[in-house]
Recover the amino acids of this structure.
């Protein structure tokens, strides 16, 4: 197997015991090709991850083989390194309006009228140096991650650090439930509780800070800028179409409700094109929908 397709995820240097070993792999290596290597071991395949109970000299180790596209492998290697480092770092990126994931730093474009509605997630970069720089973290590649405390201290040295953004009571239910199950994250919360003189960044002006971060990302990454404005344009275009064609209007025109309305709208989606909605009046669209409703009922019966 090609050596450059395999990366073993590092832990902090002085970690005493390892619950499992995580290995990233990419390229044209199929699951079937890997099977003969572990033919005597128990394994579970879950999407892109193969978890193997590997017997080494009578002792069982869990080996997680994580498949990733080649273009994201180097970034994912950094993302998964040093236990929960990136998960904790990601809380600061989240406060900046960004999302740190295994396949890149992303911008979550939200509905300006409904912050809970995500329009699209846009890739900003897979440059790990930028990830650290935009979060105002120390130089990642010169930092010594010898102990778990060094992982915690690295995050706390960001100027944006404020313990409140990490506390479980300030998280949504999904994140709170997930991180409560992470032993390292719970140790981090204990560490910040017992460590005096940590930075206490003022996040009261969060919206302006986020805008500055967005403008910097737009300025430094032309492809992200292009996709950002294209997504915005697409969003506003669709909103204009919805003024003349939406579920509420279809329900009024046909007197359908609930599942029946949903089924009919699904039927319409294969017939009524965006161009028709754009170039016709509300009355034209209503007449077509009502005609199609009659056709729909005739077909059903």
């Amino acid at each position: 197997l090609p050596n450059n397709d395999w990366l073993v995820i590092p832990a902090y240097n002085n970690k005493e015991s390892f619950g499992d070993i995580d290995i990233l792999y990419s390229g044209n290596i199929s699951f079937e090709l890997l099977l003969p290597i572990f033919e005597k071991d128990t394994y579970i395949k879950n999407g892109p991850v193969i978890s193997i109970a590997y017997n080494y000299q009578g002792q069982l180790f869990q080996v997680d083989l994580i498949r990733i596209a080649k273009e994201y492998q180097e970034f994912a290697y950094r993302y998964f390194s040093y236990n929960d480092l990136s998960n904790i770092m990601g809380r600061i990126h989240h406060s900046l309006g960004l999302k740190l994931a295994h396949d890149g730093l992303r911008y979550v474009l939200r509905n300006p009228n409904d912050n809970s509605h995500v329009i699209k997630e846009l890739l900003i970069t897979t440059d790990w140096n930028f990830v650290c720089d935009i979060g105002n973290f120390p130089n990642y590649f010169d930092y010594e991650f010898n102990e778990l405390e060094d992982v915690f201290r690295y995050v706390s040295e960001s100027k944006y650090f404020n313990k409140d953004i990490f506390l479980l009571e300030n998280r949504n239910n999904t994140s709170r439930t997930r991180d409560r199950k992470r032993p390292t994250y719970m140790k981090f919360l204990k560490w910040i509780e017992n460590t005096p003189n940590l930075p206490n960044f003022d996040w009261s002006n969060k919206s302006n800070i986020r805008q500055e971060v967005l403008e910097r990302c737009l300025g430094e990454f032309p492809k992200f800028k292009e996709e950002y404005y294209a997504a915005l344009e697409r969003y506003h275009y669709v909103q204009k179409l919805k003024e003349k064609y939406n579920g509420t209007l279809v329900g009024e025109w046909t007197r359908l409700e609930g599942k029946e309305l949903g089924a009919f709208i699904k039927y319409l989606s294969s017939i009524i094109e965006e161009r028709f909605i754009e170039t016709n009046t509300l009355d034209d669209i209503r007449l077509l929908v009502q005609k199609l409703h009659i056709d729909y009922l005739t077909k059903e019966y």
The longest strand covers residues 114-125. The two ends are 60 Å apart (CA to CA). The chain has a mean pLDDT of 89. The beta strands are 6-8, 20-25, 42-46, 49-56, 59-67, 98-101, 104-111, 114-125.
